[in-house]
Amino acid sequence: MKIYITGTSKGLGRALAEGYLDRGHQVVGIGRRNVIEHPNYEFVRCDLNDLEAVKRIRFESDGMSCMLINNAGIIGSVKRVSDLDAGALQEVMDINAIAPMILCQQFLKDIPTAGSVTILNISSGAASRAIPGWAAYCASKAALDRFSDTLFMEEQEKERNVIIYSLAPGVIDSEMQETIRSSEKKDFSSLQTFKDLKEKNELETPEAVARKIMELLSLPFDGRVVRSLREVKTDN
Asked: Phi and psi for 137 in degrees, rounded to 5?
């Protein structure tokens, strides 16, 4: 299989890339920084905040089954909307929602759907609830969920064989969590909750989450697009 993954320099994206490389797959990383050296790994340099650059990305199947994993995302500035400038809101929406939508669109144009074609968009539990201080993040992930649902319905109407997930992976011990914990109480009323998750060792490692995601993607698709990894039973 050939797998395209955004944000492979760290965290979940890197763990997914290395996990699939260990299983013998071809992996193409998309992002600003390359940290992986492997004979089956190719890197495409692209800042996902530059939507014109995102529009220039093209996909090739090389005769293999193909998967696109839109993993890259940012929390943005953890502040209430009235304390942010418009640019901060736009950056979160562009990276978390608009860039993945553009990549999904181009992927489905470039890759033949006669074989196995899968899209995995990494969403968040924040898509389904309001969290003060995270308005843009919550909105971007909610948009990604609805987009994924609608995209799947459209591909069904076109009688194309496409599997699509928008998956909330749970709380991962990542750089994003460090950003959240470094915010100020006056800007983020839930700060102590996230500090407690770290102190109580309730954060999952990127590698553990990557294994669960790979297990999920190996199971038969039941038609449910928007999912939480917490409700998925795996062997890991």
From this structure: -65, -50
Residue of 4, 20, 137, 165 with catalytic role = 137
- State the CATH class of domain 2-170+207-229: alpha beta
Q: Over 90: is that where the pLDDT of 209 sits?
A: yes
Measured between alpha carbons, how far is 77 from 82 in angstroms, rounded to an integer?
12
pLDDT of res. 234: 59
Q: Which long-range contacts (CB under 8 A, 24 or more apart) does 16-25 make?
A: 16/69, 16/71, 16/210, 16/213, 16/214, 17/41, 18/210, 19/207, 19/210, 19/211, 19/214, 20/214, 23/214, 25/1
Give me the mean pLDDT over the 73-80 stretch.
96
Domain parsing of the chain, residue ranges: 2-170+207-229
Phi, psi of 224, deg, nearest 5: -90, 115
Considering the entire predicted model, what is its pTM? 0.95
Which residues make Cβ contacts (< 8 Å) with residue 165, sequence separation at least 6?
118, 119, 120, 121, 148, 216, 217, 225, 226, 227
Task: Say how far apart CA 90 and CA 92 lie, in whole Å.
Answer: 5
137 is a catalytic site residue:
yes
